Amino acid sequence: MKTLAVPPVPPFPPLNPLIAALGSSAIRDLLAVVSRPGMLSLAGGLPAVDTFPAARIADVARALLADHPEVGLQYGPTEGDDRLRAWIAGYEAERSGRPVDPSRVIVTAGSQQALDLVVRTLVRPGAAVVVEEPGYLGALQALRAAGADLVPVPVDADGLDVDALAVRLAAGLRPVAVHTVTTFHNPSGATLSVERRRRLAALADRYGFVVVEDDPYAEIRFGGRPMPAVRAFTDRVVTLGSFSKTVAPGLRVGWCVVPEPLLAPVARLKQAADLHAGSFSQALVVGLVSDAGWWSAHLAEIRRVYACRAAALAAALAEAFGERLVVGAARGGMFLWGRFTDATRTRELLAPALAEGVAFVPGPEFFTRPGGEDALRLSFATNAPEQLAEAVRRLAAAHTSSS
Length: 403
Fold this sequence. Notes:
By secondary structure, the protein is an alpha/beta fold. It has 14 helices and 14 strands. Helix 9 links the parallel strand 6 and strand 7. Helix 3 crosses helix 11, helix 8 packs parallel to helix 9 and helix 12 (292-321) packs parallel to helix 14.
């Protein structure tokens, strides 16, 4: 009997080279390590579990399922729940002092999806995009996946150095977009000054790029008045927002407010990606924010908790390290950014720190080119003050053992 030859199995189709070359997020990789029993994490920007309004969400969920189950359990519009879009439009109008049409709001699965959709709409492979240095890792990942040519511009105590950007633009740089975390920057904690916001808007109008204003921490301010959004000064802005930091990240509810030319393309791309954001999560958020009194009190409690934790971490670091570690002031957000003055290299410090039972993110992870070797990002959001004090004790022990 004749044996039939079995054809060789063809190799798996080659991957998109942009995706194949995409690196993993250092913070996501650290999450596997910090899940070890007894580990104290200052690494990931995870909101405090004790700020999640679980009881309130449960009440809203029960009422929704009893009275209007179809609202939370059925497919919904690609652009999002109209009630939530209207609320977001009002919120963003108040922040910018300019009207926002609810039709310009697209609800997404967290602000990271909004960022990804906007990036894939705007950026062709090889297109120049200005990013902050140090910069938000999620933005760097999304832009690299799109094949963007990343152009770093430094961040200082007043946020993105807009004068340095202006010099690059005058020399011929023509980016399609500038990505900036304007308020309580991740990782540095800086806030872009009003003067720089106005100047950035003027540069966008002059040179034709889009400002991608990533603003998930705006409501976590410890004092003072809120800054006007960059959209107050120009129409060439995409604003990204999120309920992950003010309600709970597990709901995955974010948004983008987009200029008219981007509205239909972003909506079609979202339709191709996921049809619509989760109806149930959106309906829950509507139930929360519709009670203005409760919402205001909830935000005040989050600010109180995080301000207390930021102060506790800053005090513990000052006591443990003194002048060996310079830490930026915490006026809001979820992070402290520190720089060692004693030649400490934070990548080398990480392994001893993990051995002591504390995690942080080394500064170089936030740079597109060599830099930040003496820096580290520390999140104060997740742990209570006594845990933060113990985490710093462990970090100091690791620093002493590695010196």
